[in-house]
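Page 37, continued from 36.
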């Protein structure tokens, strides 16, 4: 399956979100990645439910919503109602991960689990068949434009083996520092979806940047 691209609107022009979303609609992007930060789980605040609703109003691509928040269970229904088609929660923020995954699926969304750079993929072994998507953080979450963590390649390979061993259909998403220099290496390691924020929105031609990533 060709790689899928999920541009992160965290890096877009917030004063012109509608224009940026409409640009993504006409691009070859597969998803629109929406990073939700609460200033508690991560040291930054981005946006929440109203902005997600506003993005969904104009989006013609599925919303891939990444909850970098504490107590995500309290907000699953609200983000689903706001238009999320994929809801990813952090392993580190969930006391009862299996229950949270089931709750997401009961809402009719795909269930994702994000893991921080220090978190081992081995911790997902017992629930991997319940996860639609694992989002491997290739930077420390909280801010865009960070340097890619090189250990990510080995982490992707290890997760791919776990998915295969368990006979799961889980997709692997990479979030953080993705660019033209590491995208093909990530795909070779087993990545299915690449989140690209600054690399897309700071380029002179975001359409072509997305297109070039798709061609790798």
């Amino acid at each position: 399956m060709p790689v899928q691209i999920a541009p992160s609107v965290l890096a877009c022009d917030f004063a012109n979100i509608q224009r940026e979303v409409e640009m993504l609609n006409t691009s070859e992007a597969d998803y629109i990645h929406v990073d939700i930060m609460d200033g508690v789980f991560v040291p930054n605040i981005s946006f929440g439910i109203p902005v997600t609703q506003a993005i969904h109003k104009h989006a013609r691509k599925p919303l891939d919503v990444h909850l970098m928040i504490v107590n995500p269970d309290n907000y699953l229904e609200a983000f689903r109602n706001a238009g999320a088609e994929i809801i990813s929660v952090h392993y580190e923020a969930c006391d009862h991960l299996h229950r949270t995954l089931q709750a997401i699926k009961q809402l009719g969304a795909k269930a994702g689990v994000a893991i921080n750079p220090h978190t081992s993929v081995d911790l997902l072994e017992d629930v991997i068949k319940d996860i639609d998507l694992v989002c491997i953080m290739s930077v420390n979450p909280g801010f865009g434009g960070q340097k890619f963590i090189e250990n990510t390649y080995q982490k992707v390979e290890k997760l791919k083996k776990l998915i295969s061993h368990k006979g799961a259909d889980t997709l692997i998403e990479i979030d953080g520092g993705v660019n033209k220099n590491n995208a093909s290496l990530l795909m070779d390691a087993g990545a299915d979806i690449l989140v690209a924020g600054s690399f897309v929105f700071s380029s002179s031609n975001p359409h072509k940047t997305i297109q070039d990533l798709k061609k790798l």
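Strands lie at 4-7, 32-37, 63-68, 84-90, 110-115, 133-137, 171-175, 193-196. Flag for discussion at group meeting. The chain has a mean pLDDT of 96.
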